[in-house]
Amino acid sequence: MKNQTKEKKAYQAVIFDLDGTLLNTLEDLKDSVNYALRMYHKKERSLEEVRNFVGNGVEKLVQRALMPDQDEKTFTEVFAVFKAYYEEHCNDKTCLYPGIAELLTSLQKKGIKTAIVSNKMQEGVDVLYHLYFEKYLKVAIGASEGIRKKPAPDTAREALRLLQVSEKDALYVGDSDVDIATARNAGMDCVSVTWGFRTVEELQAAGAAAMINRPEELLALIETSGKETEMEREMETAAPVKWLSKFQENREITVSVPGSKSITNRALLLAALSQGTCHLKGVLFSDDSRGFLDCLIKLGFNIEINEKRKEVIIEGTGGRIPDRKASIDVRSAGTAARFLTVMLAMAGGDYELTASPQMCKRPMEPLLSLLEACGVTFEFHGEEGHFPFALHSDGIHQKEVRIDTKISSQFASALLMCAAMKEDGLTVILEGDRSEGAYIKMTLAMMRQFGIEVEREGRKCIVSGNASFGVPVYEIEPDVSGACYFYAMAPLLKTCVIVNGVHENSIQGDIAFLSVLSKMGCKMEDTEKGICVDGRLLSAYPGQTLSMKDFSDQTMTMAAIAPFAASETRICDIEHIRYQESDRMKAIITELNRMGVSCEEIPEEKGILIRPVSEDGIRETEVETYEDHRMAMAFSLIGLKTGKIGIRNPGCCRKTFENYFELIEELQENNHAGSAEQ
Question: Which candidate in 53, 355, 356, 577 could, as Cys together with 584 as Cys, close a disulfide (CB 3.0–4.6 Å)?
């Protein structure tokens, strides 16, 4: 994408986090925590442990330092000792980070307003303010009764009010995932500092839009960049367009794909809720699954992660959430968003949940309305019925609930899996035209594999309360959704494709896409290595009229091969894909027409019509992916067919298939052997 020059407006204010951003307070926090722990003969904590515990206020710091001790009386006593000691010793070793005084002086001279917002108690903030910041700024806000802590936007918004600056004219600067979420919730741009309490990798995983390594870089950023929205920065710094060259036809290829995203995220939830240790193998490591794991860790679960071996070991808690007060960021993961919301509502507690701008646009309303009817309360920080929000629950006590699956079957899957947390179980009645969907069948199959008793009577699913369920080892299948991009090469590129480990007995709904390829004339065989789809003998393949309601993630794959069919293609019953990572129906229609393919909506069939076109009829096009991983991967197939397609923001594939384009490049480079293994 070419960058365009545009008028930029300078920031009028900068709001700073305190600990880890302006002040290095870690040593004093560690000493105070360990003093209190010693007084009660508790295990003392290392500097690195305390570094990982900070970010959500000193109460949370002490709670985490006491783990696994969950006794309320012990916490109250230890916290009182910590608080008294820290008030007396908060400045023993604390100091400004190098360059901070010069930065604040420069901002003051430039007339840029500044403020501090912290999760530290207001008394502690006041002490440090008078010691270090009184000559630079007038606003310093800490935690106090009646004001929610970060990542809720309350303190940041109060600072904006006192500075008399709008959120669009202010920049937030912090050192943690909590700060990134706070800025997002307050509608502010955010810069993350790398000298604080979180690593670069942790900041990147939390969605940092911009990072600086030294305080003076903030001045340079303000002076040279002016004001841009987070999205504008992301688009301008996105990876170059990925152009696809023509793929050699009549080849034999064998590939390995990552583990299934859908199975991975269900397995993470079920393992966390089960009793005892569960060893997950073949785990998908992607933006979504890392976000899910990060949320579980922030909720107090004990987890060992080995990305190299694609393994995760989780100590299940028997349906109990270790930390009943926490803040989590589900990022762009729809499964994490829906599954964890229900889990927290079912367990009870007070939680702050935030998400990426993309996820904040996706619908949660049917699920949240159901939970509200069950007594759960929500406080929305933005648009009602969407992320971000605060959740308070005393548990769910109903014995029967109804959920509409029209928009997303994930709502139903979340309720079904979390129903096992209830001692008396739960009956879930599925409504809507997706109640028989493949993802619900997958959920029920996995619940049974983990030992949960569940019976299905039509639309009624009866889940027995059984917190003692669990398995010691669970193998995750290769991702059939990812495999289908390669299987689609069979008819499109007259290729023979084997994907290692994918077999006909898969519990994944997208396996149905292979039946479509068979109808197009491809030969199919389930070999010892994996399913083989062979399209080398095809001279042409027919268009299809089909419902893709139960394997709609392959709609874009079908849309990529349909233009080169011998007849038109009708894809029906896909209205719900409007509400996924992007408005996928609109995206398909827009991008196909841009490249010269006739594609239109057919409302009466809740689908789209695609007419065939010759290869020469395809125009050279940069395909917009709308931050949607499936748009990027599916439409890359048209590039492999024609050599005329570039994929914008190919990095969006990180959501489920990090090395997709690397795998394509390996296949391109290895035209004769035709093998690409992970």
Answer: 577
Which is catalytic among the residues 179, 553, 573, 628?
553
Same domain, 210 and 269: no
Together in a domain, 272 and 186: no
561 and 427 in a common domain: no
In-domain check, residue 180: yes
Burial class (CB in 10 A: 0-12, 13-18, 19+), 28: buried
Q: Is 31 a catalytic residue?
A: no
Please report where in the chains the tokens 């950023």 appear, as a residue: 221
CATH of the domain at 116: 3.40.50.1000
pLDDT tens string 566-577 = 999 999 999 888
Between CA 452 and CA 314 the distance in angstroms is: 18
**Two tokens, residue 614:** 């010759």
Distance CA 608, CA 589 (A): 8
Question: Is-contact 31 45, C-beta < 8 A?
Answer: no
Tell whether pTM > 0.85.
no
User: Total domain count for the chain?
Assistant: 3
pLDDT per residue as tens digits for the range 480-524:
999 999 999 999 999 999 999 999 999 999 999 999 999 999 999
174: amino acid identity, one letter: G
Q: Does residue 499 share a domain with residue 471?
A: no
Tokens 């901070």 found at: 100
